Amino acid sequence: MQNAGNNIPLSKQVRYMESTKAAMEARVGKAAARLLLSRSFFLFSVGSNDISVFAAAPGDVAALYASLISGYSTAITDLYGMGARKFGIVNVGLLGCVPAARALSATGACNDGLNQLSAGFNDKLRSLMAGLAARLPGLDYSLADNYNLSQVTFANPAASGYVNIDSACCGSGRMGADSDCLPNSTTCADHDRFVFWDRGHPSQRAGELSAAAYLDGAAGFTAPISFDQLARKDLAIQLGCHSTRACYALRTFIHLFFHRYSIKLLLLVD
């Protein structure tokens, strides 16, 4: 969320969105840009790097959570102020079960302490989103449970077609976790059979299965609604139109506008 892993800090990504909004307004006007933003799906998947870096040199856990939740709250509130209304949130998964964490154990077992750290953050994130939805009129969200999905997957990997849940498909050394995936790294024969592509990230198949679970909301992996339900949320309801004629006119305008400009916006914050 800050700059862990040499990523662009979340706050800076939000500032980039301000520039994007200004460019949209210059092209289609303020009212149309705000309408587009209110219909857009803003996807957040942040916190994993921060927690992993913290675990390497543990400190004040409460301070870590407070910092991450404050950053999350500020980002969503700022985007809401720009006109965003739909937020897809992916919580933190089983960080203690990635190859990089397992390789530190003599037995290759998951790091339970790191998983507990992730679970604690997820509890704070759940409370944050419920509070923001109650405080900010028209804000809708779907919280995807990456943590629970990972638990289900590891409990029965064969059900998802996996033969390996602890090692990297691409890497070197024990469990493929001694280095990142580099041009001269050893790769597995079938990456679709591995949960992890490299020592810290899921394989393409794992990503596809996660996306499908969050989109459909299968087995309770999203709350309070699925990503699909969030994306389909009726703008007329969000804007609170109070007559059938007004709602119909608004829907007609939306359909014509989107057909004309063919604009879809997805903000990935990772």
TrEMBL record:
Entry's family note:
Belongs to the 'GDSL' lipolytic enzyme family.
Top-level taxon: Eukaryota
> Which Gene Ontology molecular function entries are recorded, alphabetically?
hydrolase activity, acting on ester bonds
Q: Name one Pfam family in it.
A: Lipase_GDSL
Give the matching InterPro entries. GDSL, GDSL_Est/Lipase, SGNH_hydro_sf
- Cross-referenced PANTHER family: GDSL LIPASE/ACYLHYDROLASE FAMILY PROTEIN (AFU_ORTHOLOGUE AFUA_4G14700), OS06G0725100 PROTEIN
Q: Which GO terms describe its biological process?
A: lipid catabolic process
Q: What is the lineage of its organism?
A: Eukaryota, Viridiplantae, Streptophyta, Embryophyta, Tracheophyta
**What UniProt keywords apply to this chain's record, in alphabetical order?**
Hydrolase, Lipid degradation, Lipid metabolism
Name its species.
Answer: Aegilops tauschii subsp. strangulata
Keyword Hydrolase tagged: yes
Coiled-coil stretches: none
Q: Where is the signal peptide?
A: none
The protein here is known as GDSL esterase/lipase
